[in-house]
Amino acid sequence: MDIQAALNTLAAEAARGDMVFPTHADIALRVQRALDDPDCAIDQLSKLISAEPILSAKVVSVANSVAYNPSGRAMSDVRSAVSRLGFNTLRTMATAVVIRQMQGMAQSPEHRALAGRLWEHTAHVAALARVIARRVTRQDPEAAFFAGIVHEVGAFYLISRASAFPGLLESDLEAWHDAGEAQVGRSVLSALGVPENIRAALETLWAGYLAMPATSLGDTLLLADQLSPVESPLAELSGMSNKGMRADIDLLVDGETLSSILAESAEEVASLSAALNA
Q1: Is the pLDDT of residue 250 over 80?
Q2: Which terminus of the chain is more exposed, N or C, with fewer CB under 10 A?
Q3: Dmax (CA) of the chain
C-alpha cells in the first residue's frame, strides 16, 4: 500500500469538494448554514435542530452538562437548550454530529471500533480545551471547544474512506503523522467551512511545538491533546504516542499548577465529555 498516494487522493477529493458525507448529516449541515445567516431566529433554528434526533439529543445533553449548567437546572426542550448554549456552541454541536456520523461510514467492525476510540479521544480533548482556555490560556472557551471537536476531522475522514484503500490502516502510518494528517485535515476543514482562527490553531497542533508560557488557541489545543487520558488511536498506530509527555506538563498559572486546575475542573470535563459521547 502506497500510503502517500492514498493520502494525496483523499486530500485531492476533499479539495475538489468531492467529500463523501454521511446521508444523515444533511440537517446538521443545514444548521451550520442557518447559523451563518445574521437574521436567523432562535425559533427557526430550534425547529431545524428538532428535525434531527441525534443533533437535538446532543444539544439538550450538552446544555445539561456541568460545563453549561453549573446550577443543575435541567431542561428537556430544544428551544431552551438553544438559548442556553448560544449560536457558537450550536455550530460546534452541528459539526460534531457530522464528524461523529463519519464513524458509521466505516465499512468494517475494526474500522468502526477505531473511529469509536477516536471520538472518545476527541470528546476528552474538546472538554479539556474548553477548561484550559478559560483557566490557563485566557482564550475564547467556545473557540477552544470547537477546535477540540474538529482537531481529528482528517483522521475521521481517513477511517471513513479506508475501505477504498485496502490495507491503509494496517500499514505503517508514520506518513500520516508526518504530513498526511495536515494534508487531509486542511482539505476537510476547508470543505466544512471551519473558520480561519480554528484552522490556525490546528496548524499549531500539527507542528507539535508547545510555547511556554502557553497563551494561544493553538497552545490550548496542543495542551488538551497531550493531556487527554484517551489517546488518538492513529497516534498509537503511527508510533507517535505522547503518553510519556503528560507527566512533564505542569505549568504554573497565577499561583496554581495546571494539575490542580484540572483536578478542580474534573467534574466539568467528565460531564461534558460524557455528554458528547452519549
Answers
A1: no
A2: C
A3: 54
